Amino acid sequence: MNIGEIARRAGVSRSTVSYALSGKRPVAAATARRINEVIAELGYRPNASARALAEGRTRTLALVIPPASRRLTNVQLDFVATVVEAAAAHDLDVLLSPSGGDHDRSFERIVTGRRVDGVIMMEILLDDPRVTRLRQNELPFVTIGHVEHPGGSWWVDVDYAALVRRCVHHLADLAHRHVVLINRSAELVAAGYGPAVRSTAGFQEAAEQRGLSAHVVCCADEPAAGLACFEQIRARRPEVTAVVTINEAALPGLQRALHRAGLVVPRDFSITGVIADRLAEDFHPPLTAADVPAEEMARLAVDLLVERIADPAADPRHALLDPVISLRSSTGARPAR
Amino acid sequence: MNIGEIARRAGVSRSTVSYALSGKRPVAAATARRINEVIAELGYRPNASARALAEGRTRTLALVIPPASRRLTNVQLDFVATVVEAAAAHDLDVLLSPSGGDHDRSFERIVTGRRVDGVIMMEILLDDPRVTRLRQNELPFVTIGHVEHPGGSWWVDVDYAALVRRCVHHLADLAHRHVVLINRSAELVAAGYGPAVRSTAGFQEAAEQRGLSAHVVCCADEPAAGLACFEQIRARRPEVTAVVTINEAALPGLQRALHRAGLVVPRDFSITGVIADRLAEDFHPPLTAADVPAEEMARLAVDLLVERIADPAADPRHALLDPVISLRSSTGARPAR
DNA sequence: CACCATCATCGAACCGGTTCGACAACGGGA
DNA sequence: TCCCGTTGTCGAACCGGTTCGATGATGGTG
């Protein structure tokens, strides 16, 4: 079951078997055939640990995800699925590491134990201790999202500020004067979660530029919170006629709240924001929104990581994606009062 | 950075460092302290590949998931998250392997390359070639779901037949006479996906017992299909007053279809089925349903696997869970005609 | 004081691959 | 015929840990 056994049965040395398998040195055709026959017969496959030890690489990537307690959103789920798929295309396996803001055991084990050749990190904060940790550990990594000072880092992100800015301009063009941004949870904002912070900035900037009255509210990532959040907006600021949201988990609740309030979208109220296309289509009516190209980002992240692993001294690369807004049917002109 | 370097700096042999780390043989207190100081100073952590090679175990589990193309449902997502979390509690890492019905590269690599100590398989079929593969490979594994003839296998499952039977009885008790089961997609049923097949059996059995007119329809796992599916039911069988469903992905569409048809739940129409509690609560009104205890199953699967790895000769164990139906507000007496 | 257990440590073998340098066999050119 | 380059294969070292048997130091006992 090991390479020595194959060598013995094929009547050659272990190194010859190794070369026949890897092709790194030529092997006589007849010998190669004999070796392959034995291998096929025994269903042999090299031991991954031994190979990793000898080669100095594990052919495995780590994907750092938020801990199980924090539910994954659809976009995050798309990241995970696509990262795994893209890695498989490179014949790489993916090790999952659930990790909170601080370095826990799983993260440490992976980072310092040379368990993987590289790391992809999702859900990083503007000032993330784990990024610092990876930097000092000389382990190639790519982040989905970027820290505040990403100098020298490799990353892939969506320009949330630009997207939200564009949403606000779109609403302003439709004559809306009072708008609200429904952000992610207060904890995420407080922790310095990039998209939440950058969205706020983009929102306020565009609103000021267009002279809109604009407010930002935080909302937990769940339907019930979306419902409560909207009812609060209606109660406190009845003049609001449109919302921008980056909180897709809250959408079902938002939808129910609109229905309960007897508001018809987009006749009485407009909604837009940054929402996965699949969800946007499911909404009723379909949402005018900027889709996060999760698959593209994940694929890009894997490709960048593979590149960085191949050449650790290469110049840092990054990609800031700026998807267009898909005009569907959830936004309309400000209703006459 | 390796154990030899630590040994050199601490002025001891490599084996002493190893023993100090593992505690498998006593080491003098003074020596241990010196070694620990050096380790702390250098931030040393044993190379995982070398350790795996020497110990003959990788401290890693594989989790076989459906391929990325087939979107994960919420229940499946809960499985993944909880498996990772439960494995972390045992200091085990989790390798993700997306695998279709047939054995693809990733699956083969993991199974025959001794990359992992054990495997957890989700989404298995009644007659699954991968289960056969694992059996002949002497790799410990636990399935979430069970094959048709699970003799000697280790598994965890929910008794879908019993749950659906119970749903039917519940509807019969409410005087419904014409019911429909909205099943998972036709492809899944055709492939022999356990929950889909067993639900059908339980549904028909209970319906016959109570003398109901009962039909089963397949429905793709997406909202749009749920909508189309329901409209078809209304068109073809207007006498139907209640549905049972195990297709949670189709629920939003179902909800929209009900709304579009002007039906109020549960006054005009009843819905029940097997649906994750989180989703059931999000529905409007909250769904009377049997919750799949995904977290419990995942935790159980990991615990069983750990047990089986520790003692590969142990007698096979399994758990067939049978959660109760949570009475919420989506079922009511058959409307008077 | 001699003897024997116990304790702490060491050296060597091993896990299962990869890779490097060496070398034999062979064929072609001078 | 001699020399040299090429081709195919082998043996040994190495990757970085774990583990076993051996050994020297120590201390208690008869």
TrEMBL record, chains A, B:
**HTH lacI-type domain location:** 1-55
Q: Which Pfam families does the entry link to? A: LacI, Peripla_BP_3
Recite the UniProt keywords alphabetically.
DNA-binding, Transcription, Transcription regulation
Q: Which domain of life is it from?
A: Bacteria
> Which InterPro entries does the annotation name?
HTH_LacI (IPR000843), LacI/GalR-like_sensor (IPR046335), Lambda_DNA-bd_dom_sf (IPR010982), Peripla_BP_I (IPR028082)
Gene3D superfamilies on file: 3.40.50.2300, lambda repressor-like DNA-binding domains
Report the protein name in the record: ABC transporter sugar-binding protein/LacI transcriptional regulator
Show the taxonomic lineage.
Bacteria, Bacillati, Actinomycetota, Actinomycetes, Pseudonocardiales
